[in-house]
Amino acid sequence: MQRNFLQLAQSIWWVPLILLTAALVTWWLYSQRKKPWNAQQNLLLSILRFLAISLTLFLLLEPLIRQVVSRVEQPIVAIAVDDSQSVIARGLSPTQLRQEIGAVSKELGEEGFEVRTFYLGEKTDSIGFSQNSTNLSALLRKVDDDMEGRNWATTLLITDGIFNQGSSPLYRPYRAPQFTIGLGDTIPPKDINISRVKYNKITYKGNDTPIRIEVSQRGFEGRKVKISLREGANVLGEQQLVLTKSLEEVEFTIKSDKEGLRRLNVSLPFQEGEFVRENNRSDLFMEVIDGKQKVLIIANAPHPDIKAIRSTLATSDNYQTDIFIPSLDQERPNEVYDVVIYHGAFSNRINFEPKENPGIWYILNRNSSLARVNQAINFASIRRQGAQPDKVTGAFNQAFSKFKLPEDSRLIETFPPLEVPFGDYTIGANSEVLLYQRVGNVVTKKPLFTFFDDGAQKKALLVGQDFWKWKFQETAINGISTQFNELISKTIQFLSVKNDKKQFRFQSRASRFSSIESPIFDSEVYNDIYERVYGNTLSLRVNPEQGNGTEYEFIDSEFKSSFKIPPLPSGLYNYQASTVVGDKKLTDKGQFLIEEINKEYLNLAADHDLLKNIAEKTNGEYLHYSQFNQIKDRIVKRVFKSVVTSSDSFFPLIENKWVLFIILILFSLEWLLRK
Length: 675
What we know:
about 675 residues, single chain, 5-stranded parallel sheet
C-alpha cells in the first residue's frame, strides 16, 4: 500500500506571496483597455498566465512528494533440514521425507506463512541426503543470518539429533522458538565397526611402523571375525579376533621399503544381522620419507650447550645427532650431514670440512678468534673494543621473516644473559637478525643471533654461548622448555632445507587433503637468470591409482600463483605439471592423498533428548517423525502475527518531468492563443 503527501522545504507562508505576485503580473499584462480579443478570451489568457507563473514560482519553494509505502510481512517459518547420510541410514525413505516436507511447506503457505528451507549443504531443488558430516550449529547459524531483521516466527528443525562437527546446538543462542522433528531410531543398531585407527602418518624408510586398530561391536558378543590389512591387492596381514568386549584392539606392524605415499585399507567382513556395511572398512594414508636429517656438532670440549641441543632434537624422530670432539674422538665423521654446528667456533683450528653443502651454525665463545671470524664469515664482522666481554639478553626482531616463532616465545627475552664480544658489529647482505643484543633495558642494533641465505648456502651465527641456561630457566618456570625447543628446532629446520634452484616449481599445498576440500597447488616460474616470470600457461594432469587422469590448465600472474581443482574421491594421486619458458619445456611432479571423511556411520543412534531440550529451552515443541502430520496445526495454534512495516521516500517535484511539461504547455498555449 502506497500513500503520497506534498511537503515544502521552505515556509508555507511563501505561497500567498507567490499567488499575489502571479496575480499582479497577470493583471499588469492583461488590464490594458485596448485588446485585439474579447473579454472571454482575455479571461482565458489571464488564467493561463496566472497558472504558469504560480507553478514556476512554486517550484522555488522546493516542494517534495513524500511517498509512504506500507508492507505487510507474513510470519516466516524456517525449515532446517538435516540432509546428512545418517538420516536415511536406518531405512527412512528419502522420497517419503521429501514429500512430507513439501506438503507441510504448502500447508503453511496456505495458512499465510512464508516458508524458507535450509540445508546442511547447498540448497537444491531435491534433498539428496548425501552430506558426509553433520554440523547442526552451522545449519542453525545459517538460518539466523538469513532471518536477521525479518518477521521470523519459528524454526522447524528436522533431524535425527546426531552431530559430528561443530559445537552442540543446545548451547547456542536462539531468537525464535524451535519446533524439532525427531528422525531415526534412538536404539543403537547391531553393528561391528572400525571405530579408530592409530598410526604415525609420517614414517621413515626402513622403519617398522605399528598400526593399532580399534574394533567396536554391539550385539555380536562371542563372534569370531577376521580383520585384514591390505595395500591395493596385497594382503599385508590378517588376524582372527573373538569379540568379547564392546571395544577390542588389534595391532599390525608393517615395514616401509620405499619413500612416497601409501594407501592402506583395514576391513572386516560384513556379518549377518549387521545394519550398516559402510563402517566395516577404513582407509589409512601414510607418508614414507627417506631417512632422518643428520646433524653434526663439532666442539673443542664437552659443554652444557651441546646437551641442550641434543636433548631438543631428541624429542623428534626427524633428527640423528652426532658429536665430534677432536681431542676425544680419534675417528673423524665421514658421513654427509644436513647441518653442521661449530660450538666454540674459531677458538682452535679444527681441520674439518663437511661433505657437500650442509647448513652451518657457528656458536662463538670467549676464546673465538674474531680475526678468523671476520676472515671466514662473509655476512658478519666484529671489531673488538676492549678485552672485557658484554653481558646481553636477546630482543626479538619483529620483522624477522626466515621462519615464524610463536608469540609466547618472547619469554626468551627475559632469560639469563649471554657473554658476547664487546665491539662494533656489521651485518652484510643476504643476512637477517633474529635476536638483537639488549643491554639492561636498551635494545641495541648489534646482532646476537643472525641468519644468512644467499640462495647457495645457509648459515647462522650466535655470538655467545651458555644458552643452556635458557632451557634450564624455562623448565624451572613452566616445567617444560617449549619455547627454547622451538627456537632450536626452527633453526635446524631452516639450515637443513636445501635451496631449490629449479626454474619451475608446482607443488601441492599439502601431502593430504580430505574428500570434501579442493586440493590447492602453488606455482613458481623463473627464467634462465632466475628472475620470477608471470603470464605462463600451466598444464596439470592428475592421475588416480586406477582409471583415467584429468587435465587442467591455468595461467599464473603476479597476483595469482595458487590454483584449486575440484574435490576428488579418496585415493592416492600422482600429478605432473608443465610450462614453457622461452623454448624450454619445464616440468614438475608429485603425489598427494585424498582421505575419505565420512563420520555419518560411526554413530547411528538418534539423539531425540537433544531435540527435546532444544524445544524446551526455546519455548518450542518436540514431535516424533510419526507426528509429522501435526506440525502445521501446532504452528498455526501459536497465532504468529503479520508485521506491517512502513518506509518513507522523498522525491523533489522539480525533478518530475510532467510538472515541467505542464508549465511548458501553459506558456505555449497562452502564446498560441495570443497569436
